[in-house]
Specification:
The complex is a heterodimer. By secondary structure, chain A is mainly beta. Chain A contains two helices and eight strands; from the N terminus they run H-H-E-E-E-E-E-E-E-E. Chain A has one domain. The longest helix of chain B has 16 residues. The chains are: A mainly beta, B alpha/beta. The complex binds zinc ion.
Amino acid sequence: MEDWRKDQEVLVMEGRIKVPYRWFAGEVGTRYLESLRDKGVFLGTRCPGCEKVYHIPRRHCPECFEECSQWVELGSSGTLESYTIVRRQHPQLSPLPVPYGYGIIRLEGADTGFLHLLGEFDDKELKVGDSVEAVFSDKREGNILDVKFFRPVKGVE
Amino acid sequence: MEAVAIVGAAMTRIERERKADGYADLVYEATRAALDDAGMSIDQIDNVVTVSNDFFDGRTISSMAIMDACGSYDKNVTTVEGDGTFGAFFGLMRVLSGSYGTTLVCAHHKGSESQMPLITNAMFDPIYARMLGIEAITSSALQARAYMTKYGISEEQCALVSVKNHGNAFKNPVAQLPLELTVEKVMSSPYIADPIKLLDCCPISDGASAIILATEERAKKITDKPVWAKGVAHCSTAYHLGDHELHDVSALEEAAKKAYSMAGIKDPAKEIDLVELYDAFTYMEPLWLEGLGFCEQGGGGKLTESGKTAAAGELPVNVSGGCLSGNPVLAAGLNRMIECALQIRGDAGEHQVDGVKTALAHGINGPCGQSHCVWVLGGEK
Ligand SMILES: [Zn+2]
């Protein structure tokens, strides 16, 4: 078939798959997101076996394989365990104008880190171990973006 | 474990955009080439394992569309959604079950047809992570930062991996992206997500690959150069980023430990002659080398600097050019196995390393290497 296609552009079908989904936050996710929306309070769950506090909250401890039956209120600030500053991002994905950051943040009272956005930082100053605090959105809708982003706590080394 | 061998192996050229070939065309090309490599006909294949991902293909039950191309008509065929190394693991189990004398494992990928960031964003949790816009590069950047901060690995040390692997690709005729680089060139390429720069990233690729596994009895009839599966294991860890520290690669350590124990390997640095690992980003090479036990934790940067991982070094790593020089996701792990098999057989052509008796192939699944699969392959049973 090579001779035939020598001077031919191969045809391309443009398309898009549009399928609506409804992802259920479930009982645990709903309690967590409602607390963020209504009170601005982060919640975690504690495993009765290893006492580890999971944030984001988990119904089961993946290590002990037991139910995390206890809810715990966490601080709204914590430690930056890792971060990246995004210089280029697909326009459909970018929740903030570039450059913005992602961080793994361990909130006060939690034993795990969690992923969120970073804003209002000086990109030359930012480092692992920094204290960061949550900045809440003005309009909260019951999703993870009710927290606008985390920013470095001023005056704290 | 009963002896099982790779008796045929082939991959297509890896290219940025294979417009003249649809998925099925690529799968046919790889399957046909693997059969030719083994000197087999399709009716000597007892069962088939395909590897694909519906999101990448833009087609639900994506495997169904390549049933003709992998020669599976009238055969038992099943699919693994994950890296090719995991597909090969399942193929091996099917041979070990005693029900099949041979298994064909094929994998395909066309990164050119979709938009990679949108697809890798969809691997994250829709409640807690997806709307943050995180995807493969930014999540890997978080892992790179955690690793580099913990052990003082420098961006220059990571850049050396890019220089080495893109340089190796010049001798591999199927590699997509041979590049003549210097550390300075890599360092001055633009940041995508700090500390990851453009030349720290694998390209977007199209390609397919296939291997044929056989029992000892069948293997001896098919080829005089069987490549034996000496040890293999895979291991998985947390899905949510932050559940464990991102520099912690205990899932890889566990998989390696099991694979080494099966293969009777006590000191991998002494007993393994060549490594092909999943270097989607430069930092992954030193990090995975640590997890595989080739140096102590945090020693991956120095190991790279020492030159030992160069093609002519004591422990050649990604002599093919690695994923950095062509990354048809899913097929990429199977390509690592195929490269090892060709090296052991002495059939790697211009990039052949002398005296490869035992080689290690590695593949990953999930964000930041949530799962790892480790294969130890050898020329002697
Ligand atoms: Zn527990």
